[in-house]
Design a protein that fits this description.
heterodimer; A: 154 residues; alpha+beta; Jelly Rolls; four-stranded antiparallel beta sheet; B: 282 residues; alpha/beta; Elongation Factor Tu (Ef-tu), domain 3; 2 domains; six-stranded antiparallel beta sheet
Amino acid sequence: METLERLLLAHPFLAGIDPAFGRLLVGCTRNLRFAPGQYLFREGGPADEFYLIREGRVALELHAPARPPIIIAALGAGELVGASWLVPPYRWGFDAKATTNTRAFGLDATCLREKCDADHHLGYEMMRRLLPVMVRRMQAARQQMLDVYGHTSA
Amino acid sequence: MSAAIAPSPADPMLPAPWRVRAVRRETADVATLDLVPLEGDAPRFAPGQFNMLYAFGIGEVPVSVSGDPADPTRFVHTVRAVGAVSTAIVAAAPGSVLGLRGPFGSAWPVDAAEGHDLLIVAGGLGLAPLRPAIYQVLAGSERFGRIAVLYGGRGPAELLFRDELAAWGARADVTVAVTVDHSDPSWHGHVGVVPALIKKMDFDPSNTMALLCGPEVMLRFTATALRGAGVAADHIFLSMERNMKCAIGLCGHCQFGADFVCKDGPVLPYDRIAARLAVREI
């Protein structure tokens, strides 16, 4: 458990976090491996875990009938996957698939939500770390929507 | 800090005839043309400069040089077919003749970047104007700190110079990161916007020079990300695109605030133009 705690706290998402919070988080955490092509989760499924990638790459995919799926983002080491575990009804809004051998921490969502509810300082700390990631991704999605590369000349 | 080499013809408004020696199809609507002069030698150019290419009877457009500045025999231009003139140029067959004026404008500050970590950030067709700088840098990479080429495109099929990107990425003296806005599952690389690549790079922001070329929206967000990472505004250089006509600062079509992009640019330091980039009316 000590090793898991040390590794977990070394993840960039948790850089500098109070060790007391780390001890709370490690109780919700397990080590995971995903093979290339293996899904971490599928759209509509229960968002009962969220993931901190240690190594490898995870593609976030959207799909529509009669079309190949579209990768909207690819995440790598040091990044987190998923925020739906925070938002009722706790269902994933896209597919997440490992595209290489991937190692990640899985944090149990129910366990984490309960601990955040019980300790609002922990809850605030998690929000303070999650919100910038979500804002950066929202801004990136806006830039991708602009389709800026379509019609330039040089 | 950016330097310029003056156009060589006595009359800078007079196109000279250049023959299309070879054409390489890069993507569905982008081609790279090798041009050689019908008379005399090819003038020297500095990375970042552009020529005015004239499709006879149709019109003239500015196109940055995308070839190696160490090759004195030809001009290489990479053009996307977006209008009547560029479509005619992309369709030009080997052996046909185009008019050419130039080179014009300011250059990437490659020499001034020596001793610095160097981030070369391109989006879409913006890799073409940066390619001459990349050639020059890689020819003397020991004079720079860490070198990274970051490139973003719409999708894998629209990426330019894929063979060269792979070759550069295989070198030990440069880091290459390529991302696309979206893709099908056959792509196993980055998916996301170019500015997001910056935080993945290892560089010393207090001693970094950044060269940026691409759509203006991408330039704005990339420059903002670089500033956020601690890179000084006067160490960030952007290649601007405006409606260049005369190319010598007379007609005013490419005016961008206090600068004419054709004459004072296209390569301009961010600290000089940052405020203007936020003004949509300019």
